[in-house]
Amino acid sequence: MIGSSARGRRLLACDDEPQILRALKVILREHGYDVLAAASVEEALDAVSVAPVDAAVIDVLLPDGDGIELCRRFRRGSDMAIIVLSAVGEEEQKIRALEAGADDYMTKPFSPRELLARLEAVLRRAYSSRVDTVLASDGLEIDLAAHVVRRDGQDIHLTRLEYELLCVLVRNEGRLLTHRALLSEVWGPAYADDTPVLRTHIARLRRKIDPAGAGVRHYIHTEPGVGFRFDPR
After folding, report:
1. Is the pTM of this model over 0.85?
2. What's the angle, vertex CA 102, arms to CA 233 and CA 120, rounded to 5?
3. Which mean pLDDT values do the consecutive 10-residue runs of the chain (233 residues) have?
4. CATH 1.20.120.1630 fits 10-127, yes or no
5. Where in the chain is the domain with CATH 1.10.10.10?
């Protein structure tokens, strides 16, 4: 249930538009978050220096600076979950935010339900221990010790690259990963710009792990021009 893990979580909401900041405070507090509000980079830095937070929702355009640069500054000294908000839906802006350390990016206007769902996802990713030798999510199971992948109890044969790609995606469940990040992690920095290779392997991986038939769940979702997200739904 959305909000079930919010109790006791402290969150920073940073937006210079008063109506949006009020809405964020209402939405998040109603779902159990302890919300610190800020309308500028300076206010955000001051708030977090006094009371460390578990997560931050940051607008890109702030009166005294860039929300993406604020994200980068937070990321240097914290593993807080970060979602960046903007009225700009340009791919380059999204990539800048993700490369600065944001866990996710949302374009205004957005629905409260989507914000809460994405916030829960990035919090799970940021604060889950992931020390188990088995990663499991909605019928898909990866046994890291045995290098075995199963869907609904049935073994699935993956190539080495497909397996490594799936592991990176599952470990970052709910987080949007850029093409460059995935290529660098799985293939190495020399392949960071080889997007067609990544798309080919994602297509093959989907054919193997997604159940056949209409109306079934899909594990890997595409953000066109930006990257991919593992999010069973």
Report:
1. no
2. 40
3. 56 94 93 93 91 91 92 84 85 86 88 90 65 70 80 85 87 87 86 89 91 70 91 73
4. no
5. 134-230
Class at the top of the CATH hierarchy for domain 134-230? mainly alpha
Contact 96, 88 (CB under 8 A): no
